[in-house]
Design a protein that fits this description.
The complex is a heterodimer.
Chain A: H1 2-5, H2 16-27, H3 37-44, H4 47-56, H5 62-76, H6 92-213, E1 221-224, H7 241-288, H8 291-294, H9 300-321, H10 328-362, H11 364-401, H12 407-474, H13 486-515, H14 530-537
Chain B: E1 2-8, E2 14-16, E3 22-27, E4 30-35, E5 41-46, E6 53-56, E7 62-67, E8 72-77, E9 84-88, E10 96-99, E11 105-109, E12 115-120, E13 126-130, E14 139-141, E15 147-154, E16 157-164, E17 169-175, E18 181-186, E19 192-197, E20 204-208, E21 213-217, E22 226-231, E23 237-242, E24 246-251, E25 257-262, E26 266-267, E27 273-280, E28 285-290, E29 295-296, E30 313-318, E31 324-329, E32 335-340, E33 345-351, E34 358-361, E35 368-371, E36 376-381, E37 384-389, E38 400-403, E39 409-413, E40 417-422
Parallel strand pairs in B: 27-33
Antiparallel strand pairs in B: 1-40, 2-3, 3-4, 4-5, 6-7, 7-8, 8-9, 10-11, 11-12, 12-13, 14-15, 15-16, 16-17, 18-19, 19-20, 20-21, 22-23, 23-24, 24-25, 26-29, 27-28, 30-31, 31-32, 32-33, 34-35, 35-36, 36-37, 38-39, 39-40
The chains are: A mainly alpha, B mainly beta.
Organism (chain B): Cyprinus carpio
Protein name (chain B): WD repeat containing, antisense to TP73
InterPro entries (chain B): Centrosome-WD_assoc, WD40/YVTN_repeat-like_dom_sf, WD40_repeat_dom_sf, WD40_rpt
Chain lengths: 551, 442
């Protein structure tokens, strides 16, 4: 179609307006545009079509048209129409050939176009097909990927299950082993017990046999020199039902008293614990309430106020309910309120802690520095102390080890030993003095004892005589004199003397006692001096032991 | 500390009278009674055969000597040395003999536990109790001496009989819910009777004095169960030691477990003190040191194929003031564990160089005396630990020991001899330094 227009664009200004309108007139008729039939029809058509062709070529511009056509044809590669025929007349043959070639060209172009079009259609359909298949494959891929992940998931779960089942299996095996060991230990225990019983049984059987065969049967008996009284001194009672009832009564009384004591102690404990809880509650309320003022305004304040008011309310309750001691509700209320307070206190503490930690981050640097300074100072101190101790140790070592080298130390030692010697001498002297005193006293005592013995003998004789005389005097022989009266007096008088002497000596004994030191190993059997024995026999001094020991 | 002379004894028969005035020892067939202060012989009695068991009566007036082989029991009086009494069980034999709490009756258990014969010294009367059970502890007298609990077994079932010791009246007779009763024990306030099963079943039952079941406690099933039981002196706690190396404490209000004490091989509790007896080779001195925690306790694995294996808590003892509990675990035989009952935690572990043979608390103060079969006596108190060598010529291997009722002296028993150790009360006070006291001389 465009071909129709190009001639109009030819530099032919004269044709401008007229051709355009005529061409436009042609463009209106669609039947002529599309088919090469229209060419024929234009050829056949009368003047109107001719007017179209004449738009390009007119009588005047034939040569120009021919030149132009030559040009075009040459550019297309066809043999050109030559104008060199007689006086501007075109050879129809050439023109027809040209036309035929152009037609051929046209046909070829059409065919190519057709082919291209079909090709293009094919390509587009192929493309569509490929796109479709691509989409489909993508979907499939997506689908398979999902399936794959699903399968992975399933596999993982199965693995987990396998692991848990393996663990179960292990634990079951362990339990089985444990049970087996238990069974085996029980079995050994049973065997042991049954063997023991069997042994006992055989012993019984043997004994029974022995008893059956043994003719003399030793009867059981008791021999006692005399009956023993009951431990509480009372007489035995007959067994009657009253006694039985009394026993039952005693038993129940014992049980009751035990329960009562237990209950009393539990009640005491309970009341103490309740008091402690109440104190705790009061303390907690006291701790929580002043915070109302200094803590930052937070919604928690309301809760604190609430808690305080609650607490006060409950304090009122408390005073009432403390009267009913064992009320279950009171107990629950108390524990609940304590728990509530405690929770509040805890949350408050947590808040405080977080605040403190925030603040601390601010001045962390400062405190660390201070901390480090402190540490340094303490380390120095420690070092100093260590050195001091070391020095002390060294000095002490010197002190202890030096005596064997230095003269002054030796002298000192001498002095010490001398002092000790002096002390020992003094004590020895004292000891010997005491010994001497003791000996003297012992001599005195023995003498006195001998004398006393003599006097006693004399006294006895006197007494015998006196009795004899008495007896004789009782008889009718009244005029007999009593010659022996004076003697008993004498014996009595004499006997008082040693007593006096003996009385003087106890003070000496007590004095000597003050020197002695008593450290009696209780079980060590000590030899008794003879004078102590004497004293005891004379009933003058009871069982005191005289033991001398140097301090 | 002072030590007395050494006297002969046989069969570890050496007992102090309940009033603390006399010491009775048996030497073969002779009974020797000494004054406790002077150790002079006060009485000397001769029995008919070697004495197997000797016991003072509760009023310290009589002593019984039992000769099991001949089935004889002879009773001697201290007030009247020429008074004599002989009980002959005849052909039925004798297995054990004991006094009743009033000191006027003697209970003889015949051979094969056929019956218990009750002889009265006041009336020469005899009573019989049939079907007594032969177990670890089948008879127990209450602390006030009023009641006696006896375990019986009839027709494969366990029964418990409670007798009034006054006139041997049967107060209560009830069936016990145990499978195989192993022992029973009255609480110190005489109101509760603890009954436990054999080691094949962990079961401890608590019966009230009138025979009602108060509670049943069972910690676990199937494994070997209870090995030892002890009441605290105030009756507040009941300590149960078992084969799983744990002690469980039950409280007297709910009869439920309040805590359990474990005996691990590694001690990591930082509040506990471990005293370790260490042998120092060159001078042969043994000192007590405090070791650093965590400490390892030597363990001896028991033979799994034997019955009654040597594992588990076999001995428990509360101190007299109820504040401490001493325990011994059989597979750690060289160690003794002391627990604080106020804090319910481990207080000290005493590790010795030989297995602990015997340990006893002082009846007055919180002092523990123990011996391991060597020549030393070890004392522990909250202030520290002391070991004392018995300064006797020849060696005196302390096999067992017990306290005098006043807590002022210890009676030490070797295989054939006995010796007294007098303690001054300063040990146990705050100014005692310890740990390196090695050799104490007179």
């Amino acid at each position: 179609m465009g071909d129709w227009w190009t001639p109009a664009m030819m530099p032919d200004p004269s044709l401008d307006n007229k051709e355009l309108s005529s061409i436009s007139g042609i463009s209106m008729s669609p039947s002529r545009q599309n088919s090469h039939h229209s060419l024929h029809s234009t050829m056949v058509l009368p003047k109107t079509s001719y007017s179209v062709i004449s738009a390009f070529c007119t009588e005047e511009n034939i040569s120009q048209c021919i030149a132009y056509i030559n040009q075009e044809v040459c550019s297309l590669g066809l043999t050109g129409v030559s104008l060199e025929s007689e006086s501007g007349g075109l050879s129809a043959v050439l023109v027809l050939n040209l036309l035929y070639e152009v037609l051929q060209l046209q046909r070829r172009a059409q065919r190519a176009l057709h082919e291209l079009e079909t090709q293009q259609l094919k390509n587009s359909s192929d493309l569509e097909h490929l796109q479709h298949s691509n989409c489909r494959l993508k979907d499939q891929l997506e689908h398979t990927r999902r399936e794959n992940s699903g399968l992975h998931e399933g596999e993982r779960q199965l693995q987990l299950k396998i692991k848990t089942l393996q663990n179960c299996l292990k634990s079951e095996k362990e339990e089985v082993q444990k049970l087996q060991s238990i069974i085996s230990s029980r079995a050994t225990q049973y065997n042991h017990d049954s063997k023991r019983k069997e042994r006992e049984c055989t012993k019984l059987k043997e004994r029974l046999n022995q008893l059956l065969m043994d003719k003399r049967d030793k009867k059981l008996s008791i021999e006692m020199s005399n009956y023993v009284g009951r431990s509480d001194g009372k007489r035995g009672l007959w067994k009657t039902s009253k006694m039985e009832a009394r026993h039952e009564g005693e038993m129940y009384r014992a049980l009751l008293s035990d329960y009562e004591t237990r209950q009393r102690s539990l009640v005491l404990e309970n009341s103490e614990l309740k008091k402690v809880l109440q104190h705790m509650k009061k303390d907690m309320i006291a701790i929580l309430s002043p915070k109302n003022v200094c803590v930052q305004p937070e919604p928690a304040d309301d809760s604190l106020e609430q808690a305080v008011s609650e607490g006060e309310e409950e304090a009122g309750d408390r005073s009432r309910e403390s009267l009913e001691q064992s009320c279950e509700q009171a107990r629950e209320q108390l524990t609940n309120s304590i728990r509530l307070q405690w929770r509040k206190l805890k949350s408050h503490m947590e808040r405080l802690d977080s605040q403190v930690s925030l603040e601390r981050e601010g001045d962390e640097v400062m405190s660390r520095k201070e901390h480090e300074d402190e540490m340094q100072r303490m380390r120095l101190e420690l070092q100093q102390c260590k050195e001091f101790i070391h020095m002390q140790q060294q000095l002490l070592q010197q002190q202890l080890s030096s005596p064997c080298d230095e003269e002054t130390a030796a002298l000192l030692n001498d002095c010490y030993t001398l002092e000790e010697k002096e002390r020992l001498k003094e004590e020895w002297r004292l000891f010997s003095e005491q010994k001497r005193n003791f000996e003297r006293e012992r001599k005195n005592f023995t003498e006195a004892a001998i004398r006393l013995g003599h006097e006693r003998k004399a006294f006895e004789e006197d007494r015998a005589v006196w009795l004899k005389t008495q007896f004789l005097n009782m008889t009718p022989f009244v005029d007999r004199k009593r010659p022996a009266l004076s003697e008993p007096h004498g014996a009595l008088a004499v006997s008082t003397e040693p007593e006096a002497k003996l009385q003087s000596t106890p003070p000496l004994v007590t004095k000597s006692q003050s020197y002695s030191v008593f450290s009696t190993p209780k079980a060590a059997p000590v030899k008794m001096p003879s004078t102590a024995d004497l004293y005891r026999t004379l009933h003058l001094i009871p069982e005191s032991r005289l033991i001398f020991q140097l301090p | 500390m002072n030590f007395s002379e050494v006297f002969k004894q046989s069969n570890q028969l050496c007992k102090v009278s309940p009033d603390g005035k006399y010491l009775a020892t048996c030497v073969q067939y002779r009974l020797v009674v000494r004054d406790i202060n002077s150790l002079q012989i006060v009485h000397l009695y001769t029995c008919l055969d070697q004495v197997m068991h000797m016991e003072w009566s509760s009023d310290s007036l009589f002593i019984l000597c039992a000769m099991y082989k001949r089935g004889l029991v002879q009773v001697w009086s201290l007030e009247q040395p020429d008074w004599h009494c002989k009980i002959d069980e005849g052909s039925i034999g004798l297995v054990s003999s004991r006094w009743s709490p009033d000191g006027r009756h003697i209970l003889n258990t015949t051979e094969f536990n056929l019956r218990v014969t009750v002889w009265s010294l006041c009336t020469k009367a005899v009573s019989y109790i049939k079907y007594p059970k032969a177990c670890q502890k089948g008879v127990d007298f209450s602390a006030d001496g009023r009641y006696m609990a006896l375990a019986e077994r009839r027709e494969c079932k366990d029964y418990i009989s409670v007798f009034v010791c006054d006139d041997w009246h049967l107060l209560r007779h009830f069936e016990s819910e145990t499978q195989d009763l192993a022992g029973l024990e009255w609480s110190p306030n005489s109101c509760v009777l603890a009954v436990w099963d054999s080691c094949l079943e962990y079961k401890i039952l608590l019966y009230s004095l009138d025979g009602r079941l108060l509670s049943l406690y069972s910690a676990y099933e199937w494994s070997l169960g209870i090995k030892s039981v002890a009441w605290s002196p105030s009756s507040q706690f009941l300590a149960v030691g078992s084969y799983d190396e744990k002690v469980r404490i039950l409280n007297h209000i709910t009869w439920k477990k309040i805590t359990e004490f474990e005996h691990p091989a590694t001690i990591i509790n930082t509040k506990a003190v471990v005293f370790k007896e260490v042998e120092k080779r060159p001078t042969c001195l043994v000192s007590d040191e405090i070791t650093q925690l965590p400490a390892q306790v030597p363990v001896i694995k028991p033979d799994p194929d034997r019955a009654n294996p040597k594992i588990g808590i076999s001995t428990l003892a509360f101190s007299a003031d109820n504040r401490f509990l001493a325990t011994k675990n059989d597979n750690m035989p060289q160690s003794l564990w002391v627990w604080d009952m106020q804090r319910l935690s481990l207080l000290a572990v005493l590790e010795q160089t030989a297995p602990v043979r015997c340990f006893v608390w002082d009846p007055r103060r919180p002092r523990l005396a123990l011996c391991t079969g060597n020549t030393k006596v070890y004392l522990w108190s909250p202030a520290g630990c002391v070991s004392v060598n018995v300064p006797v010529e020849g060696s005196f291997q302390v096999q067992s020991l017990f306290w005098h009722c006043s807590g002022s002296s210890l009676v030490l028993l070797s295989k054939e001899h006995v010796c007294l150790c007098y303690l001054n009360s300063c040990f146990g006070g705050p100014n005692i330094s310890h740990k390196h006291i090695t050799f104490m001389s007179l």
